[in-house]
Write a structure and sequence with these properties.
With about 250 residues, the protein is of the alpha+beta class. The protein has five helices and 15 strands. The strands form five sheets. It has a five-stranded antiparallel β-sheet, covered by helices on one side. Strands 4-10-9-7 form a four-stranded mixed β-sheet. It is globular. The chain starts with a strand and ends in a 9-residue tail after the last strand. About 30% of the residues are buried.
Amino acid sequence: MEMKETDKDGIEEIDEVPGEVKKNSRYVAKISMNPSDNKNKKVYFRDVETQTIAKYYADKFNSYNPPKKVDFIKACVLELIQREGNPIVGVEKFIPGPYRKHNSNYGYVSDEERNTPQAFSHFSYEASDHTLLICDIQGVGDLYTDPQIHHISGEGFGKGNLGVQGISKFLQNHRCNAICRYLKLPQLNAKVADIGTIPTTRLMALNNIQIVTMVQQAGAQLHSRTAVLPVLKRAVVVDNQKEDTGCSRCVLL
């Protein structure tokens, strides 16, 4: 594997990754600048877990047919056995194009205040039954990477998990837009006028979104090393006079 240093922040470009990836595909390797993180390999697995959970919620968001679909890059962990100490790095595919940060983990919202990323963060809070919120949305277009999850317990999901305080900061600064309204999310500081991306219909046909909760295997406490399973709570959704309770358990792969 050939590695090439690209910047002082510990982000490296991988010219080739063995496996199913084509030669010369461009990937990014993320190495923490904090020496203690490099000794604690759990940090990298925690980041991949966070991104995988965010991708799961993105799929749920997309299932309601918003005007623009969102996605998170698949991430993995590699051990660099050809380097001294066999360091661990987080790896994901390089995204070409203008990179934008839409919100942060402490209430910041970009000047653009795009509808789609803001609505997705709000959706994650409502879809999780107010137990978590996915923020720090950034990437190219609506292909995102490196998100942060706030959980009401304040545990897991790395140092950026600010728990209830982080969730509150988002809610204070969020202004509901046309996509929030389309998804029938509770309206928070709604924008005065519809601007930006607007759904073709004012409201979706379903009465509400289904609730997804994160539970731990074998009743274990939420922790970065604990595998989690998204579970759909029973929610009756009326659509054309049909009752749909959803599946009882969906395993996060």
